[in-house]
Amino acid sequence: MLRWTSATSNLPVAMEPFRLLDERGRLEGDPPLGLDEVRRLYAAMVEARAYDRKASAMQRQGRLATYAPLEGQEATQIGSVAALRAEDWLVATYRDAGAMWLHGYGWRNLFLGRMGDERGGHPPEGVPVLPPSITVGAHMIHAVGLGWAADLRGEARVSLTLFGDGATSEGDFHEAMNFAGVFRTPTIFVCQNNQYAISMARTRQTAAETIAQKADGYGMPGVLVDGNDVLAVYAVTTEAAERARSGGGPSLIEALTYRTGPHTTTDDHLRYRSAEEVEQWRRRDPIDRVRRYLEGLGAWDPGWEEALNAASTTAVEQAVAEAETIAAFEPDDIFTGMYAEPTSVLRRQAEELRRDLGE
Amino acid sequence: MLRWTSATSNLPVAMEPFRLLDERGRLEGDPPLGLDEVRRLYAAMVEARAYDRKASAMQRQGRLATYAPLEGQEATQIGSVAALRAEDWLVATYRDAGAMWLHGYGWRNLFLGRMGDERGGHPPEGVPVLPPSITVGAHMIHAVGLGWAADLRGEARVSLTLFGDGATSEGDFHEAMNFAGVFRTPTIFVCQNNQYAISMARTRQTAAETIAQKADGYGMPGVLVDGNDVLAVYAVTTEAAERARSGGGPSLIEALTYRTGPHTTTDDHLRYRSAEEVEQWRRRDPIDRVRRYLEGLGAWDPGWEEALNAASTTAVEQAVAEAETIAAFEPDDIFTGMYAEPTSVLRRQAEELRRDLGE
Amino acid sequence: MATLTMAQAINDALRVAMDADERVVLLGEDVGVTGGVFRVTDGLIDRFGPARVVDTPVAESGIVGAAFGMAVGGLRPVAEIQFLGFAYPAFDQIVSHVGRIRNRSRHRFTAPMVIRVPFGGGIGAAEHHSESTEALFAHTPGIKVVVPSGPRDAKGLLLSAVEDPDPVVFLEPIRVYRAIKEEVPDGDYRIPIGTAAVVREGSDATLIGYGAVVADLRRAADELAGRGRTVEIVDLRTISPLDADTLVASVRKTGRAVIVTESHRTAGMASEIAALLQERALYSLLAPIERVTGWDVVVPLKRSEEYYIPDVARIVAAVERTLEA
Amino acid sequence: MATLTMAQAINDALRVAMDADERVVLLGEDVGVTGGVFRVTDGLIDRFGPARVVDTPVAESGIVGAAFGMAVGGLRPVAEIQFLGFAYPAFDQIVSHVGRIRNRSRHRFTAPMVIRVPFGGGIGAAEHHSESTEALFAHTPGIKVVVPSGPRDAKGLLLSAVEDPDPVVFLEPIRVYRAIKEEVPDGDYRIPIGTAAVVREGSDATLIGYGAVVADLRRAADELAGRGRTVEIVDLRTISPLDADTLVASVRKTGRAVIVTESHRTAGMASEIAALLQERALYSLLAPIERVTGWDVVVPLKRSEEYYIPDVARIVAAVERTLEA
Ligand SMILES: Cc1ncc(C[n+]2csc(CCOP(=O)(O)OP(=O)(O)O)c2C)c(N)n1
Ligand SMILES: Cc1ncc(C[n+]2csc(CCOP(=O)(O)OP(=O)(O)O)c2C)c(N)n1
Ligand SMILES: [Mg+2]
Ligand SMILES: [Mg+2]
Question: Is the pTM higher than 0.90?
Answer without folding.
Answer: yes
